[in-house]
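Researcher: Here's my situation. A collaborator sent me these components and asked whether they could plausibly form a single complex. I don't have experimental data yet, so a predicted model of the whole assembly would be a useful starting point for our discussion.
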Amino acid sequence: MFDPLSIAATGMTAQKLNVDTIANNLANVNTPAFKRGAVQFTALVVPDGRLPEAGPLAAPVSVGIGVRAGVTRQFEPGALHASGSALDLALSGEGFLEVTLPDGSRGYVRGGPLQVNAEGQLVLLDGLPLKPAIQVPEGAQSFEVSASGRVQARLPGQAAPLEIGQLELVRFANPQGLQARDGGVYRATEASGEPIAGRPGEDGLATLAQGFLEGSNVKLLDELVGLLVAQRAYEANARAVQAADELESLVNGLRR
Amino acid sequence: MNEILALSLQALQRDVAQLERVARNLANVLTPGYKREVDGPPFADHLAQAWLAQTRRAQDGAGASPAAARIPEPGQVLHDPGPGTLRITGQPLDLAALDGGWFEVQGPQGTAYTRQGSFRLDAQSRLVTAQGHPVMGEGGEIRLPHAHPFIDARGRVFDGPPDAHTAPLAQLKLVRFERPRLQAQADGLYAIAGEPVAEAAQGAPVVRQGALENANVDTLEEMTRLMRAMRHAEAVQRATLGYDELVGSAIRRLADPS
Protein backbone atom coordinates (compact mmCIF):
# COMPACT_ATOMS: atom_id res chain seq x y z
CA MET A 1 0.00 0.00 0.00
CA PHE A 2 2.55 2.61 1.09
CA ASP A 3 5.85 2.97 -0.74
CA PRO A 4 8.10 3.23 2.35
CA LEU A 5 7.37 -0.41 3.05
CA SER A 6 8.39 -1.70 -0.36
CA ILE A 7 11.41 0.62 -0.51
CA ALA A 8 12.71 -0.61 2.83
CA ALA A 9 11.90 -4.19 1.81
CA THR A 10 14.24 -3.85 -1.19
CA GLY A 11 16.90 -2.78 1.29
CA MET A 12 16.34 -5.86 3.42
CA THR A 13 16.43 -8.14 0.38
CA ALA A 14 19.67 -6.58 -0.80
CA GLN A 15 21.31 -7.00 2.62
CA LYS A 16 20.15 -10.59 2.81
CA LEU A 17 21.91 -11.26 -0.49
CA ASN A 18 24.95 -9.53 0.98
CA VAL A 19 24.92 -11.82 4.03
CA ASP A 20 24.32 -14.91 1.89
CA THR A 21 27.26 -14.02 -0.35
CA ILE A 22 29.55 -13.47 2.62
CA ALA A 23 28.41 -16.77 4.12
CA ASN A 24 29.20 -18.56 0.86
CA ASN A 25 32.64 -16.93 0.76
CA LEU A 26 33.35 -18.00 4.34
CA ALA A 27 32.16 -21.54 3.66
CA ASN A 28 34.61 -21.75 0.75
CA VAL A 29 37.61 -20.15 2.42
CA ASN A 30 39.54 -23.43 1.98
CA THR A 31 38.21 -24.47 -1.42
CA PRO A 32 41.08 -24.51 -3.95
CA ALA A 33 40.87 -21.80 -6.61
CA PHE A 34 37.54 -20.52 -5.22
CA LYS A 35 36.77 -17.01 -6.45
CA ARG A 36 34.93 -14.91 -3.89
CA GLY A 37 31.62 -13.25 -4.64
CA ALA A 38 31.13 -9.52 -4.07
CA VAL A 39 27.79 -7.78 -3.90
CA GLN A 40 27.16 -4.77 -6.13
CA PHE A 41 24.53 -2.29 -4.95
CA THR A 42 22.72 0.06 -7.33
CA ALA A 43 20.02 2.58 -6.45
CA LEU A 44 16.72 1.93 -8.23
CA VAL A 45 15.17 4.99 -9.85
CA VAL A 46 12.03 5.34 -11.97
CA PRO A 47 11.74 8.37 -14.22
CA ASP A 48 7.98 8.70 -13.99
CA GLY A 49 7.18 8.59 -10.31
CA ARG A 50 5.28 10.96 -8.11
CA LEU A 51 5.99 12.28 -4.66
CA PRO A 52 3.28 11.65 -2.03
CA GLU A 53 2.75 15.32 -1.19
CA ALA A 54 2.71 16.48 -4.80
CA GLY A 55 -0.87 15.57 -5.56
CA PRO A 56 -2.34 13.43 -8.36
CA LEU A 57 -1.91 15.96 -11.16
CA ALA A 58 1.75 16.84 -10.57
CA ALA A 59 4.30 16.30 -13.36
CA PRO A 60 6.24 13.02 -13.10
CA VAL A 61 9.67 13.23 -11.47
CA SER A 62 12.60 10.88 -11.13
CA VAL A 63 11.91 9.03 -7.92
CA GLY A 64 13.95 6.43 -6.09
CA ILE A 65 12.25 3.15 -5.29
CA GLY A 66 14.97 1.40 -3.33
CA VAL A 67 18.06 -0.60 -4.15
CA ARG A 68 18.97 -3.69 -6.13
CA ALA A 69 21.88 -5.97 -5.44
CA GLY A 70 23.75 -8.38 -7.70
CA VAL A 71 26.66 -10.71 -7.06
CA THR A 72 29.82 -10.51 -9.13
CA ARG A 73 32.77 -12.85 -8.96
CA GLN A 74 36.16 -11.33 -8.14
CA PHE A 75 39.00 -13.02 -9.99
CA GLU A 76 42.11 -11.80 -8.23
CA PRO A 77 44.47 -14.78 -7.83
CA GLY A 78 44.67 -16.66 -4.55
CA ALA A 79 47.91 -17.57 -2.82
CA LEU A 80 49.66 -20.74 -3.96
CA HIS A 81 50.67 -23.39 -1.50
CA ALA A 82 52.67 -26.57 -2.07
CA SER A 83 50.34 -29.54 -2.07
CA GLY A 84 52.91 -32.31 -1.91
CA SER A 85 51.45 -34.01 -4.96
CA ALA A 86 53.19 -33.72 -8.32
CA LEU A 87 49.81 -34.20 -9.93
CA ASP A 88 48.51 -30.79 -8.84
CA LEU A 89 48.79 -27.85 -11.23
CA ALA A 90 48.17 -24.23 -10.25
CA LEU A 91 48.24 -20.92 -12.11
CA SER A 92 50.40 -18.21 -10.57
CA GLY A 93 48.67 -15.07 -11.83
CA GLU A 94 45.85 -14.33 -14.28
CA GLY A 95 44.34 -16.61 -16.88
CA PHE A 96 42.58 -19.92 -17.34
CA LEU A 97 43.32 -23.36 -18.71
CA GLU A 98 40.93 -24.48 -21.41
CA VAL A 99 39.24 -27.86 -21.11
CA THR A 100 36.66 -29.74 -23.19
CA LEU A 101 33.39 -30.27 -21.35
CA PRO A 102 31.42 -33.56 -21.64
CA ASP A 103 29.02 -31.95 -24.11
CA GLY A 104 31.88 -30.89 -26.36
CA SER A 105 31.79 -27.19 -25.47
CA ARG A 106 34.71 -25.17 -24.11
CA GLY A 107 35.23 -24.72 -20.40
CA TYR A 108 37.82 -22.79 -18.42
CA VAL A 109 39.42 -23.70 -15.11
CA ARG A 110 42.09 -22.31 -12.84
CA GLY A 111 43.99 -25.55 -12.38
CA GLY A 112 43.67 -28.52 -10.08
CA PRO A 113 44.65 -32.16 -9.81
CA LEU A 114 45.84 -33.72 -13.10
CA GLN A 115 45.31 -37.30 -14.14
CA VAL A 116 45.89 -39.48 -17.16
CA ASN A 117 42.63 -41.01 -18.36
CA ALA A 118 42.03 -44.38 -20.04
CA GLU A 119 42.82 -42.93 -23.47
CA GLY A 120 46.11 -41.55 -22.27
CA GLN A 121 44.96 -37.92 -22.34
CA LEU A 122 45.93 -35.46 -19.67
CA VAL A 123 42.73 -34.50 -17.85
CA LEU A 124 41.92 -32.04 -15.10
CA LEU A 125 39.61 -32.37 -12.12
CA ASP A 126 36.81 -34.80 -12.91
CA GLY A 127 38.15 -36.03 -16.19
CA LEU A 128 37.98 -32.89 -18.34
CA PRO A 129 40.56 -33.19 -21.13
CA LEU A 130 42.92 -30.25 -21.54
CA LYS A 131 42.74 -28.32 -24.76
CA PRO A 132 45.00 -28.46 -26.73
CA ALA A 133 44.93 -32.18 -25.88
CA ILE A 134 48.09 -33.63 -24.43
CA GLN A 135 48.69 -37.33 -25.03
CA VAL A 136 50.82 -39.11 -22.45
CA PRO A 137 52.59 -42.17 -23.93
CA GLU A 138 51.83 -45.55 -22.41
CA GLY A 139 54.21 -46.68 -19.73
CA ALA A 140 55.27 -43.17 -18.78
CA GLN A 141 56.35 -43.02 -15.17
CA SER A 142 55.60 -39.34 -14.63
CA PHE A 143 55.13 -36.08 -16.43
CA GLU A 144 56.47 -32.61 -15.81
CA VAL A 145 54.95 -29.24 -16.56
CA SER A 146 57.34 -26.29 -16.70
CA ALA A 147 56.43 -22.75 -15.69
CA SER A 148 56.07 -21.82 -19.35
CA GLY A 149 53.73 -24.74 -20.06
CA ARG A 150 56.10 -27.27 -21.66
CA VAL A 151 54.85 -30.77 -20.86
CA GLN A 152 57.39 -33.56 -20.77
CA ALA A 153 57.00 -37.27 -19.93
CA ARG A 154 59.58 -39.52 -18.29
CA LEU A 155 59.75 -43.00 -19.78
CA PRO A 156 61.50 -45.89 -18.02
CA GLY A 157 64.98 -46.64 -19.36
CA GLN A 158 65.35 -43.21 -21.00
CA ALA A 159 67.48 -40.55 -19.38
CA ALA A 160 66.08 -37.61 -21.33
CA PRO A 161 62.42 -36.67 -20.92
CA LEU A 162 60.11 -36.77 -23.94
CA GLU A 163 58.43 -33.57 -25.03
CA ILE A 164 54.69 -34.27 -25.34
CA GLY A 165 53.06 -30.88 -25.69
CA GLN A 166 52.72 -27.18 -24.84
CA LEU A 167 49.96 -25.79 -22.64
CA GLU A 168 48.27 -22.52 -23.50
CA LEU A 169 46.34 -20.15 -21.29
CA VAL A 170 43.44 -17.85 -22.13
CA ARG A 171 42.16 -14.66 -20.59
CA PHE A 172 39.02 -12.57 -20.97
CA ALA A 173 38.37 -8.82 -21.20
CA ASN A 174 35.64 -9.12 -18.57
CA PRO A 175 36.07 -12.29 -16.48
CA GLN A 176 33.18 -11.16 -14.27
CA GLY A 177 30.94 -11.99 -17.20
CA LEU A 178 31.94 -15.67 -17.14
CA GLN A 179 29.28 -18.16 -16.23
CA ALA A 180 30.29 -20.28 -13.24
CA ARG A 181 29.41 -23.97 -13.17
CA ASP A 182 29.96 -26.52 -10.45
CA GLY A 183 33.44 -27.58 -9.57
CA GLY A 184 35.26 -24.38 -10.53
CA VAL A 185 34.55 -24.62 -14.27
CA TYR A 186 33.64 -21.44 -16.17
CA ARG A 187 32.00 -20.87 -19.54
CA ALA A 188 32.43 -17.87 -21.79
CA THR A 189 29.41 -15.66 -22.43
CA GLU A 190 28.71 -12.58 -24.53
CA ALA A 191 29.42 -10.42 -21.49
CA SER A 192 32.83 -11.91 -20.83
CA GLY A 193 34.12 -11.45 -24.34
CA GLU A 194 35.98 -13.96 -26.49
CA PRO A 195 38.86 -15.95 -24.94
CA ILE A 196 42.25 -14.47 -25.84
CA ALA A 197 44.90 -17.19 -26.01
CA GLY A 198 48.54 -16.83 -25.03
CA ARG A 199 51.60 -18.57 -23.68
CA PRO A 200 52.01 -18.90 -19.93
CA GLY A 201 54.21 -16.08 -18.65
CA GLU A 202 53.65 -13.84 -21.68
CA ASP A 203 51.34 -10.82 -22.02
CA GLY A 204 50.56 -10.74 -18.33
CA LEU A 205 49.36 -14.34 -18.25
CA ALA A 206 50.15 -16.61 -15.30
CA THR A 207 52.97 -19.10 -15.14
CA LEU A 208 52.25 -22.71 -14.25
CA ALA A 209 53.25 -24.28 -10.98
CA GLN A 210 53.23 -28.07 -10.73
CA GLY A 211 52.90 -29.46 -7.24
CA PHE A 212 50.96 -26.43 -6.04
CA LEU A 213 47.33 -25.62 -5.48
CA GLU A 214 45.81 -22.14 -5.55
CA GLY A 215 43.95 -21.18 -2.39
CA SER A 216 40.69 -19.27 -2.37
CA ASN A 217 40.91 -15.49 -2.69
CA VAL A 218 38.61 -14.95 0.29
CA LYS A 219 39.98 -12.32 2.68
CA LEU A 220 38.72 -13.39 6.07
CA LEU A 221 39.00 -10.00 7.76
CA ASP A 222 37.17 -8.20 4.94
CA GLU A 223 34.38 -10.76 5.01
CA LEU A 224 33.88 -10.59 8.77
CA VAL A 225 33.82 -6.78 8.77
CA GLY A 226 31.44 -6.91 5.81
CA LEU A 227 29.20 -9.27 7.75
CA LEU A 228 28.93 -6.82 10.68
CA VAL A 229 28.15 -3.96 8.34
CA ALA A 230 25.57 -6.03 6.43
CA GLN A 231 23.83 -7.02 9.66
CA ARG A 232 23.53 -3.40 10.79
CA ALA A 233 22.28 -2.30 7.40
CA TYR A 234 19.69 -5.11 7.47
CA GLU A 235 18.62 -3.99 10.93
CA ALA A 236 18.24 -0.37 9.86
CA ASN A 237 16.06 -1.38 6.91
CA ALA A 238 14.00 -3.67 9.14
CA ARG A 239 13.29 -0.68 11.41
CA ALA A 240 12.15 1.31 8.41
CA VAL A 241 9.79 -1.54 7.47
CA GLN A 242 8.42 -1.58 11.02
CA ALA A 243 7.91 2.19 10.95
CA ALA A 244 6.07 1.96 7.62
CA ASP A 245 3.87 -0.74 9.10
CA GLU A 246 3.10 1.42 12.15
CA LEU A 247 2.24 4.31 9.89
CA GLU A 248 -0.21 2.17 7.95
CA SER A 249 -1.70 1.10 11.24
CA LEU A 250 -2.08 4.76 12.29
CA VAL A 251 -3.81 5.57 9.03
CA ASN A 252 -6.14 2.61 9.35
CA GLY A 253 -6.93 3.77 12.86
CA LEU A 254 -8.30 7.10 11.63
CA ARG A 255 -11.71 5.59 11.41
CA ARG A 256 -12.74 3.27 14.24
CA MET B 1 -15.20 21.20 8.29
CA ASN B 2 -13.34 19.86 5.31
CA GLU B 3 -10.39 22.24 5.78
CA ILE B 4 -9.22 20.51 8.94
CA LEU B 5 -9.44 17.07 7.39
CA ALA B 6 -7.63 18.34 4.30
CA LEU B 7 -4.90 19.75 6.52
CA SER B 8 -4.42 16.46 8.34
CA LEU B 9 -4.33 14.59 5.04
CA GLN B 10 -1.56 16.91 3.84
CA ALA B 11 0.35 16.56 7.09
CA LEU B 12 0.17 12.77 6.92
CA GLN B 13 1.27 12.80 3.29
CA ARG B 14 4.31 14.86 4.27
CA ASP B 15 5.11 12.29 6.95
CA VAL B 16 4.80 9.48 4.41
CA ALA B 17 7.10 11.42 2.09
CA GLN B 18 9.58 11.86 4.94
CA LEU B 19 9.45 8.13 5.69
CA GLU B 20 9.95 7.36 2.00
CA ARG B 21 13.10 9.49 1.93
CA VAL B 22 14.42 7.72 5.01
CA ALA B 23 13.61 4.32 3.48
CA ARG B 24 15.37 5.22 0.22
CA ASN B 25 18.45 6.39 2.07
CA LEU B 26 18.58 3.35 4.35
CA ALA B 27 18.03 0.95 1.44
CA ASN B 28 21.09 2.53 -0.22
CA VAL B 29 23.27 2.78 2.87
CA LEU B 30 25.88 0.50 1.23
CA THR B 31 25.54 1.71 -2.36
CA PRO B 32 28.86 3.31 -3.36
CA GLY B 33 28.57 6.88 -4.64
CA TYR B 34 24.93 7.20 -3.52
CA LYS B 35 23.87 10.75 -2.70
CA ARG B 36 21.26 10.82 0.05
CA GLU B 37 17.91 12.54 -0.24
CA VAL B 38 17.36 15.43 2.12
CA ASP B 39 14.28 17.32 3.26
CA GLY B 40 13.40 20.59 1.61
CA PRO B 41 13.77 23.86 3.49
CA PRO B 42 11.23 24.36 6.31
CA PHE B 43 7.95 26.04 5.54
CA ALA B 44 9.08 29.24 7.23
CA ASP B 45 11.72 29.69 4.49
CA HIS B 46 9.11 29.35 1.75
CA LEU B 47 6.94 31.91 3.50
CA ALA B 48 9.88 34.28 3.90
CA GLN B 49 10.81 33.95 0.23
CA ALA B 50 7.24 34.62 -0.91
CA TRP B 51 7.02 37.68 1.35
CA LEU B 52 10.37 38.99 0.09
CA ALA B 53 9.28 38.53 -3.52
CA GLN B 54 6.07 40.39 -2.87
CA THR B 55 7.84 43.25 -1.11
CA ARG B 56 10.36 43.57 -3.96
CA ARG B 57 7.61 43.60 -6.54
CA ALA B 58 5.86 46.38 -4.60
CA GLN B 59 9.09 48.39 -4.44
CA ASP B 60 10.49 47.84 -7.94
CA GLY B 61 7.14 47.53 -9.66
CA ALA B 62 8.32 44.66 -11.85
CA GLY B 63 10.66 41.69 -12.12
CA ALA B 64 11.15 38.57 -10.03
CA SER B 65 13.80 38.28 -7.32
CA PRO B 66 17.24 37.12 -8.56
CA ALA B 67 17.46 33.38 -9.22
CA ALA B 68 20.53 32.96 -7.06
CA ALA B 69 18.55 33.65 -3.89
CA ARG B 70 15.84 31.18 -4.72
CA ILE B 71 15.26 28.21 -2.46
CA PRO B 72 14.10 24.98 -4.12
CA GLU B 73 10.41 24.71 -4.97
CA PRO B 74 8.40 22.35 -2.77
CA GLY B 75 7.69 18.89 -4.11
CA GLN B 76 11.13 18.25 -5.59
CA VAL B 77 13.57 15.44 -4.88
CA LEU B 78 16.64 17.02 -3.31
CA HIS B 79 20.00 15.27 -3.09
CA ASP B 80 22.95 16.14 -0.89
CA PRO B 81 25.93 16.17 -3.29
CA GLY B 82 28.46 16.12 -0.45
CA PRO B 83 31.15 13.43 -0.28
CA GLY B 84 30.96 10.14 1.55
CA THR B 85 33.85 8.43 3.32
CA LEU B 86 36.30 6.26 1.36
CA ARG B 87 36.54 2.48 1.58
CA ILE B 88 39.82 0.92 0.47
CA THR B 89 39.20 -2.15 -1.70
CA GLY B 90 42.57 -2.59 -3.44
CA GLN B 91 40.86 -3.37 -6.77
CA PRO B 92 42.65 -1.57 -9.62
CA LEU B 93 39.45 -0.49 -11.34
CA ASP B 94 37.74 0.78 -8.16
CA LEU B 95 38.09 4.56 -8.32
CA ALA B 96 37.05 7.32 -5.94
CA ALA B 97 36.63 10.86 -7.21
CA LEU B 98 38.10 13.39 -4.79
CA ASP B 99 37.46 17.05 -4.17
CA GLY B 100 33.87 17.16 -5.41
CA GLY B 101 34.65 15.78 -8.88
CA TRP B 102 32.28 13.57 -10.87
CA PHE B 103 33.14 10.89 -13.41
CA GLU B 104 31.56 11.61 -16.78
CA VAL B 105 29.67 8.66 -18.23
CA GLN B 106 27.75 8.03 -21.45
CA GLY B 107 24.40 6.98 -20.04
CA PRO B 108 21.23 5.77 -21.80
CA GLN B 109 19.89 9.35 -21.69
CA GLY B 110 23.09 11.03 -22.83
CA THR B 111 25.90 12.49 -20.73
CA ALA B 112 25.53 11.73 -17.04
CA TYR B 113 27.73 11.79 -13.97
CA THR B 114 28.47 9.31 -11.25
CA ARG B 115 30.64 8.85 -8.21
CA GLN B 116 30.11 5.11 -8.09
CA GLY B 117 33.60 4.28 -9.27
CA SER B 118 33.34 0.47 -9.26
CA PHE B 119 34.41 0.19 -12.89
CA ARG B 120 35.29 -2.83 -15.01
CA LEU B 121 36.02 -3.71 -18.63
CA ASP B 122 33.26 -4.88 -20.94
CA ALA B 123 33.55 -7.56 -23.61
CA GLN B 124 35.09 -4.96 -25.96
CA SER B 125 37.69 -3.92 -23.37
CA ARG B 126 36.09 -0.50 -22.83
CA LEU B 127 36.17 1.01 -19.35
CA VAL B 128 32.54 0.90 -18.17
CA THR B 129 30.57 1.35 -14.97
CA ALA B 130 29.41 -1.72 -13.07
CA GLN B 131 26.14 -1.45 -15.01
CA GLY B 132 27.91 -1.33 -18.38
CA HIS B 133 27.90 2.39 -19.30
CA PRO B 134 31.12 3.73 -20.89
CA VAL B 135 33.25 5.97 -18.69
CA MET B 136 34.50 9.00 -20.60
CA GLY B 137 38.08 10.13 -20.89
CA GLU B 138 39.22 13.47 -22.28
CA GLY B 139 39.43 11.76 -25.68
CA GLY B 140 36.15 9.82 -25.59
CA GLU B 141 35.69 6.17 -24.62
CA ILE B 142 38.60 4.47 -22.88
CA ARG B 143 39.88 1.12 -24.13
CA LEU B 144 42.38 -0.75 -21.97
CA PRO B 145 44.61 -3.74 -22.82
CA HIS B 146 43.97 -5.36 -19.41
CA ALA B 147 42.06 -4.85 -16.21
CA HIS B 148 44.87 -3.68 -13.94
CA PRO B 149 46.15 -0.33 -15.16
CA PHE B 150 47.93 2.19 -12.99
CA ILE B 151 45.87 5.35 -12.49
CA ASP B 152 47.63 8.31 -10.94
CA ALA B 153 46.17 11.00 -8.71
CA ARG B 154 45.51 13.24 -11.73
CA GLY B 155 43.40 10.60 -13.45
CA ARG B 156 45.95 9.57 -16.10
CA VAL B 157 45.70 5.89 -17.01
CA PHE B 158 48.93 3.98 -17.62
CA ASP B 159 49.62 0.39 -18.70
CA GLY B 160 51.70 -0.20 -15.59
CA PRO B 161 53.61 1.85 -12.99
CA PRO B 162 54.98 4.71 -15.08
CA ASP B 163 58.47 6.06 -15.37
CA ALA B 164 59.36 9.45 -16.80
CA HIS B 165 58.93 8.33 -20.40
CA THR B 166 55.70 6.35 -20.38
CA ALA B 167 52.81 7.99 -22.16
CA PRO B 168 49.37 7.62 -20.57
CA LEU B 169 46.84 5.44 -22.36
CA ALA B 170 44.04 7.85 -21.46
CA GLN B 171 43.02 10.72 -19.19
CA LEU B 172 39.89 10.25 -17.10
CA LYS B 173 37.37 13.04 -17.46
CA LEU B 174 36.35 14.46 -14.10
CA VAL B 175 34.00 17.41 -13.86
CA ARG B 176 33.36 19.67 -10.89
CA PHE B 177 30.33 21.87 -10.44
CA GLU B 178 29.53 25.06 -8.60
CA ARG B 179 26.45 24.39 -6.40
CA PRO B 180 25.35 21.22 -8.25
CA ARG B 181 21.68 20.28 -8.37
CA LEU B 182 21.34 16.54 -8.85
CA GLN B 183 18.62 14.58 -10.52
CA ALA B 184 18.83 10.83 -10.05
CA GLN B 185 18.75 8.50 -13.04
CA ALA B 186 18.90 4.73 -13.19
CA ASP B 187 22.12 2.79 -12.61
CA GLY B 188 23.79 5.16 -10.17
CA LEU B 189 23.94 8.03 -12.67
CA TYR B 190 22.96 11.64 -12.02
CA ALA B 191 22.08 14.48 -14.33
CA ILE B 192 23.63 17.61 -12.87
CA ALA B 193 22.47 21.17 -13.39
CA GLY B 194 24.97 23.78 -12.32
CA GLU B 195 28.04 25.65 -13.43
CA PRO B 196 31.02 23.43 -14.32
CA VAL B 197 34.10 24.90 -12.69
CA ALA B 198 37.64 25.14 -13.91
CA GLU B 199 40.31 22.54 -13.18
CA ALA B 200 41.20 21.63 -9.61
CA ALA B 201 44.10 23.47 -8.02
CA GLN B 202 47.37 22.54 -9.71
CA GLY B 203 48.69 19.27 -8.38
CA ALA B 204 45.68 18.55 -6.17
CA PRO B 205 44.66 14.87 -6.35
CA VAL B 206 41.39 14.22 -8.17
CA VAL B 207 41.22 10.43 -8.20
CA ARG B 208 42.15 7.65 -5.79
CA GLN B 209 42.70 4.21 -7.29
CA GLY B 210 41.76 1.16 -5.24
CA ALA B 211 39.06 2.91 -3.20
CA LEU B 212 35.32 3.41 -3.40
CA GLU B 213 33.27 6.29 -2.02
CA ASN B 214 30.65 5.16 0.48
CA ALA B 215 27.09 6.48 0.41
CA ASN B 216 26.83 9.80 2.29
CA VAL B 217 23.98 8.40 4.41
CA ASP B 218 24.15 9.02 8.16
CA THR B 219 22.12 6.26 9.82
CA LEU B 220 21.82 8.22 13.05
CA GLU B 221 20.27 11.16 11.23
CA GLU B 222 17.94 8.86 9.29
CA MET B 223 16.73 7.16 12.46
CA THR B 224 16.06 10.55 14.05
CA ARG B 225 14.05 11.69 11.03
CA LEU B 226 12.16 8.42 11.10
CA MET B 227 11.23 8.86 14.78
CA ARG B 228 10.20 12.46 14.25
CA ALA B 229 8.00 11.52 11.28
CA MET B 230 6.33 8.73 13.23
CA ARG B 231 5.64 10.86 16.29
CA HIS B 232 4.31 13.67 14.13
CA ALA B 233 2.03 11.24 12.29
CA GLU B 234 0.81 9.93 15.61
CA ALA B 235 0.04 13.45 16.81
CA VAL B 236 -1.78 14.32 13.58
CA GLN B 237 -3.78 11.14 13.82
CA ARG B 238 -4.86 11.93 17.40
CA ALA B 239 -5.81 15.46 16.44
CA THR B 240 -7.85 14.13 13.51
CA LEU B 241 -9.56 11.55 15.68
CA GLY B 242 -10.36 14.23 18.23
CA TYR B 243 -11.79 16.48 15.54
CA ASP B 244 -13.78 13.60 14.08
CA GLU B 245 -15.19 12.90 17.57
CA LEU B 246 -16.10 16.58 17.94
CA VAL B 247 -17.97 16.70 14.63
CA GLY B 248 -19.66 13.40 15.33
CA SER B 249 -20.89 14.49 18.72
CA ALA B 250 -22.04 17.85 17.33
CA ILE B 251 -24.09 16.09 14.64
CA ARG B 252 -25.60 13.73 17.17
CA ARG B 253 -26.51 16.38 19.76
CA LEU B 254 -27.63 19.20 17.50
CA ALA B 255 -29.71 16.98 15.29
CA ASP B 256 -31.33 15.22 18.25
CA PRO B 257 -34.98 16.22 18.30
CA SER B 258 -35.60 15.24 21.92
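Model: Some features of this prediction you could bring to your collaborator: The mean pLDDT of chain B is 87. Chain B touches chain A through 56 residues (CB under 8 Å).
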